[in-house]
What we know:
The complex is a heterotrimer of chains A (about 375), B (about 350) and C (about 450).
Chain A: H1 9-24, H2 26-30, H3 38-61, H4 69-85, H5 90-112, H6 117-136, H7 140-143, E1 149-150, H8 158-163, E2 175-176, E3 179-180, H9 183-206, H10 208-225, H11 231-255, E4 258-259, H12 266-279, H13 286-300, H14 306-312, H15 320-329, H16 336-350, H17 354-367, H18 373-380
Antiparallel strand pairs in A: 1-4, 2-3
Helix pairs in contact in A: 1-9, 3-9, 3-10, 3-11, 3-12, 3-13, 4-5, 4-11, 5-6, 5-11, 9-10, 9-11, 12-13, 14-15
Chain B: H1 2-32, H2 39-57, E1 60-64, E2 74-78, H3 79-84, H4 86-93, H5 95-117, H6 127-149, E3 165-166, H7 168-171, E4 180-181, H8 182-204, H9 206-216, H10 218-223, H11 228-250, H12 260-275, H13 280-297, H14 300-305, H15 309-324
Helix pairs in contact in B: 1-8, 1-11, 1-12, 1-13, 2-5, 2-6, 2-11, 2-12, 5-11, 8-9, 8-11, 9-11, 12-13, 12-15, 13-15
Chain C: H1 2-5, H2 10-24, E1 47-54, H3 61-78, E2 104-111, H4 116-130, E3 134-137, H5 141-154, E4 157-160, E5 177-179, H6 184-199, E6 204-210, H7 213-228, E7 232-239, H8 247-254, E8 260-264, H9 268-279, E9 286-287, E10 290-291, E11 293-298, H10 301-307, E12 315-318, H11 327-340, H12 346-365, H13 370-377, E13 380-382, E14 390-392, E15 399-400, E16 403-408, E17 419-425, H14 427-430
Parallel strand pairs in C: 1-2, 1-3, 3-4, 4-5, 6-7, 6-8, 8-11, 11-12
Antiparallel strand pairs in C: 9-10, 12-16, 13-14, 14-15, 16-17
Helix pairs in contact in C: 3-12, 4-5, 6-7, 9-10, 12-13
Amino acid sequence: MATTPQTTPNQDRLLFVLFAAAVLTAPLWASVIGAGYPDLLQKFAIFGILAIGFNILFGLTGYLSFGHAAFLGIGSYAAVWSFKLFTVNALPAVFFGMVFAGLFALVIGYISLRRTGIYFSILTLAFAQMSYNLAYSVLTPITNGETGLTMNQDDPRFIDNLFFAPEGNALPSTNLFGIEMTGFSGFYFCAVVLIIAFYIAMRISRSPFGMMLRAIKSNQNRMNYTGFNTRPYALTAFVISGVYAGLAGSLMAVTDPLAGAERMQWTASGEVVLMTILGGAGTLLGPVLGAGIIKYFENIFSAYNAQVLERIFDFLPDGIDHAAASVAGLFVGEGWHLTLGLVFMLIVIFLPGGVMEGFTRLRAKFSKPTVESSSSGSTTSPAKDSA
Amino acid sequence: MDALLLQLLNGLDKGGAYALIALGLTLIFGTLGVVNFAHGALFMLGAFCAVTLQKLLTISQRVKDESITFFDAYKEIPYLEIWYGETGTMIIDHAVPLSILFAIPIMLLIGLIMERGLIKHFYKRTHAEQILVTFGLAIVFQEIIKAQFGANPIPTPAPEAFAGSADIGLWLGLGEAVVYPWWRLIYLLFSAIVIGGVFAFLQFTTFGMVVRAGMADRETVGLLGIHVERRFTIVFGIAAVVAGLAGVMYTPILPPDYHIGMDFLVLSFVVVVVGGMGSLPGAVAAGFLLGILQSFASMNEVKEIFPGIDQIIIYLVAVIILLVRPRGLLGRKGVMEG
Amino acid sequence: MTLFKQGVSRRGLMRGGIALSAGLAAPQFFVRGAGAATYLNEPTGSTVTFGFNVPQTGAYADEGADELRAYQLAVKHLNGEGDGGMLNTFTSKALEGKGVLGKKVAFVTGDTQTKSDAARASAKRMIEKDGVVMVTGGSSSGVAIAVQSLCQEAGITFMAGLTHSNDTTGKDRRRNGFRHFFNAYMSGAALAPVLKANYGTDRKAYHLTADYTWGWTQEESIANSTEAIGWETVNKVRTPLGAGDFSQYITPVLNSGADVLILNHYGKDMVNSLTQAVQFGLRDKQVNGKDMVVVVPLYSRLMAQGAGANVKGIFGSTNWHWSLTDAGSQAFVKSFGAEYGFPPSQAAHTCYVQALLYADAAQRAGTFAPCELGKALEGFEFDGMGNGPTLYRAEDHQCFKKVLVVKGKENPSSQFDLLEVVEEVPREQVTYDPNIPQFAGELGPCNNGA
């Protein structure tokens, strides 16, 4: 997973084109697995961005932030406030989401990066939990607490009201110069942003700056002994990663103008960590895949109820079909968390490099059946994050 | 003054629970180098040992309730009461203290199986992977409990004898106003005994000496030809028992549900880090310190000055301590640092 | 940052651009045949799909499971299976157990996780993928309000499940959303006279309140109505959600001079704070020459189960209780009990009723279109659903009906028999003007989504 980039520019180009093609055609192939509806596709793209950004920090530098969801929440709040105060256009919302998340990341990162290893994780966790607790209660005037921040009819919307007469009393919907940000057009907006975000992450990863970040991961002490100050680099990575999260948060608000505090809870931060590791930390594609898998579980697996299961197992003989349905029922519907837990365990136990390692192994098996040590060896050891 | 004393007791009580969980976490981390995200789940499993025993003791004869006509309702009379009358009722009443005996072998077994079956293979993996796999395990534990017992809290009252409050005000000459529930005092005493027991075990037995040596320098101890691994397995078992007992005893204070472990998990990690990774006295001290601070921050007088301080005090303290004294209160320099 | 500059090449950007424009051409054929339908998700086949959005994981999973049971029972009855339940006692006879508008009722389920984001994602799945005409469910006010506004924007009907906050049909009311469950204001209005009769007019109340919007609205409503009967509010203290151990909030109550503790908590918080308050001996204490008492304004039988013996003798309010003996309640309890072997909770009741009311309104309106269907519900008077004569008020889409004041039973005969109904407070007493300050809001226009 954290192997030095030995891919050629040509391979990168191919990867990028394939990625862009896969993302843009998602409505086609995702409907085969029952995920081809706008909301889930939007979530795939948005959490893909979040995970890509998280990977720039964790995958490259090895700093495990446990408070990344805070930036997601801040991005959402900033975006909704932009809708309320200025305009329902998506661009300013995205801009403010990124700027505010970046500023918070700068402050939190500056403080947290004074420590490394698990101390860093706990610091970020503490900041995120404080944000969550305050947003839920004391800061309700800004965040609207439990109910979540939403748009209202009587919001000022200065810029909109300057140019357009307020029409009727229906709530205006978020748009990009007239294109509504709901449904498939909303997905395509997110998809384009995802592709750009992927491209930038790819360039960062291949750049000398990316090399520097990897060097931090493999041995920060040695870097420091050579008289090299790694902090500015780590901080830059932290801020970039925070901006990515803010971007994802603002997109969540763009496609669905509501910002809630629970987006900042530690479990939400944990989810990003899980996505990244599940897919393959340090790889480009892995985090996006991990995000997709978790969101798919959450939305599709949870919807299988007894009725659906009975229908699925209808082909089995009587008696057996009921048994099969009730066994399967433990793992889907209200039991989907159980499946999620088992999948984490299995992946970490057998594929420590995440889903991407699975692909690498498969490829190695088919192309060169004799060599198989390279992938597993490189994934397990490099630099405990205690480094 | 009375109010301060009561809050001090509240804090010590809370601190006792934090300290017990943090103690186990630190034992596991210090000896095995594993970050165990399933530790909260072990606390939860302990609590459900008490629930299970209570359910076992109240296995009942179902008698049709004729007063309810529109569906089949049953009155449930526990067999223990039918067979032994008053004695049976008393046994049921003492389900929670009895569960201590019940929980020790079960938790030890769970701990040993967990270490041999899973954790063992993760000694050399990264902390991120350890976190992920134990987190997955915690979810699996939770979901099994939820499938069996549902998601609602289950009442597990303390025995009748300890239900009331102790007049500690009278003992200390502070007047009648100061009272404190018996069970919470017992919990405090219990955590003190368990903590003392663990320390004595490590301090005064050969086994404990080897473990401490292993915590300090695993390689050298290994070179001396001592089987560190086997002892560490037992250490994991002990940590599981400590967490489980903390759970059992906490059930009368907090009716357990399947999620109770997760609620404690994050806090106990903060406690461990504030105390200093790998430092057992640190974990205990930090547990009590954070418990007390949390109690005092919740006082109305304090909240009037800093609104919402009770929501964030623990994290705030953690941030300050980590910035001022990065190794934690009593930690050794350089553990888990860059 | 010169490091980045060389990274982004012009060619790279162009490549992206080409891929983009190629992709953007793709989507149009995916949009569902718009234009033909007069409202969103108009059912074209022989079935109509309802969306049941309930918490299946998290703290309210048991309530969610009970809600789902009730919905499945409602679907059975609507389709003419089983004994028909409340369809037999319902005063409107539009439904005949042959489905709705000639269509068989089907349903999809989803997990709200008691989180606004997850609930909205789940509701969107139902709307966008499964083509539901209506979403119903919810076990907390934050979720209900979030899903209600989503349904308003999307253009389908929302039938709220268990949500007790004033805001659901107050300042966050929406034209497409309807609530059968009662609210915090009604709890206050119903409880006050009973509290007065039992505890007198000279009392000092101390509030412990869950620190989020639902808690605040309930605290406000209860404080207002208890102050109206002469009680003094000594203090209002906010507690963090999910505090677990409430001891540090309870000890100050002991010496505050208050003789009533009001717990504005729900769910796990209620179970914990009540258990611990009793443990601290609050109920054995004498203050100002009176016995100290605890009040839990919103009761739920499922939660009372969690608090065990601690609920004995404690007053509170509920929307409905299975021990009611009117024909509607009995019919429902009977068919629910026959199906699942235990009595339904109030959450199950409100969800069952909401499903039936929706189907009935569709039948009477002759369409599932939210605007027309909404008109059939607005101002609708009915009976036979377990709460006596009930009005779906047009101004705020709130049901007005009896509210039950209940008390924890001293000698429960089974694990379900925890609460006894003290008084059925008549509808007039809990009715309020829709535009009083705590409630003022705008329904806005209705939305058919097409």
